[in-house]
Amino acid sequence: MDSQTHGKGSTQARLGGLLAGRGAVVAVAVLAVLVIVLVAAVLPAACSPAEKDGGTVPVTQNGNVISPDEGDVAAENGTDAETDTTDPASDSAAEETATSTPRELWAKGTMPYLYQIDPQWSDASYSGGTLAEQGCGPTALCMVYIYLTGDTSYDPAGMADFATQNGYATEGNGSSWALMTDGAAQLGVYGQSIVATADALRYELESGRPVICIMNPGTFTEVGHYIVLERMTEDGKVVVHDSNSVGRSMRTWDLDLICSEAAGAWSFSA
After folding, report:
1. What SS3 class is residue 262?
2. What pTM was estimated for this model as a whole?
3. CA 35 to mean position of chain CA atoms
4. Is residue 53 part of a domain?
5. Could you tell me if residue 149 is inside a domain?
6. Where residue 198 sits, what CATH number does that domain have?
7. Distance (Å, rounded) from C-alpha 126 to C-alpha 129?
8. 90 and 185: one domain?
9. Is 267:255 a contact under the CB 8 Å cutoff?
10. CA gap 114, 102 in Å, rounded
């Protein structure tokens, strides 16, 4: 009787030890999970969006020199927003008053700032919508065309008509890439497709050839958008003319960021 009791006691002791051991393992596992959760909450996301460059453009806008302070104020007021599907989080009211460089200041060798959202032509029909909604392609080409030729006969609405009449406007989807090569050739301008790498774009810009990039969703667009690269600055940044954003046009940009989001690029010469 005593031996049986002792045997049962030993078995119970071994079982209690086993359960205690398992409890310790569970406790350690729970602690490990808590540590992982806390670390994940503290560390930044590995795939956070690319940060924009904070430079300003040392050029004139609408005949006036834009100072760094004015560029900062524009950014604070939301003027780097857009009014169409390229940026759904836009402050559209800030961009509805976008004013392009006046026609009397358009000249060869000077890149004008032309905005598809400028009220003087934003409501013009293009690509199944309006120039404000779909007109980044003809507006970008218009800026480059004026810069290279000095011909002021085309404004963004006129360039949009040219694109439509010659089959470069796509129904509801902006402009075909052929506008930048075949369309440019019809205007007497040579548009050459180039690889969108930092070295290639830098070479073209430093050689005096402006570049138009078609951008993938990212910093500049949610669906697709043509922007103009005018030149490199002394500190190695890029002067951008974004027809859909005054704010983005009033800043300089990191070339690597642009290349990382570009779907294609063309350099231009007369």
Report:
1. strand
2. 0.69
3. 37
4. no
5. yes
6. 3.90.70.10
7. 5
8. yes
9. no
10. 9
C-alpha to C-alpha distances, 196 to 86, 211, 240, 263, nearest whole angstrom: 21, 10, 15, 7
DSSP 33: H
Residue span of the structural domain in which 135 resides: 60-269
CA proximity to 110, closest of 66, 156, 68, 59:
59
Amino acid sitting at position 234: E
Q: How many helices (H) and strands (E) does the chain have?
A: 10, 10
Residue reference for tokens 């904070």: 54
pLDDT in the model for residue 172: 87
Question: Which run of H or E residues covers position 64?
Answer: strand 64-65
Q: How far apart are CA 113 and CA 270, in angstroms?
A: 19
Rounded to whole angstroms, how far apart are CA atoms 7 and 267? 91
Asked if residues 180 and 212 have their Cβ atoms less than 8 Å apart, the reply is: yes
pLDDT at 97: 78
Domain presence at residue 54: no
pLDDT tens-place string over residues 238-258: 999 999 999 999 999 999 999
- Among 119, 121, 125, smallest CA distance to 142 is for 121
Do 253 and 238 meet the contact criterion of CB atoms below 8 Å apart?
Answer: yes
Q: Among all chains, which residue has been given the structure tokens 């075949």?
A: 182
Query: Does residue 42 sit in the same domain as residue 92?
Result: no
- Alpha carbon distances (Å) from 190 to 72, 112, 145, 199, 266: 36, 19, 10, 21, 10
192 lies in a domain?
yes
Per the listing, tokens 């050689």 go with 207
pLDDT of residue 23: 52
- Domain co-membership, 91 together with 31: no
> CA-to-CA distance for 187 and 138, rounded, in angstroms?
12
* Residue-wise DSSP of 171-226: TTS-B-GGGGTHHHHHTT-EEEEE---HHHHHHHHHTT--EEEEEPSSSS-SS-EE
Q: Do 64 and 20 fall into the same domain?
A: no
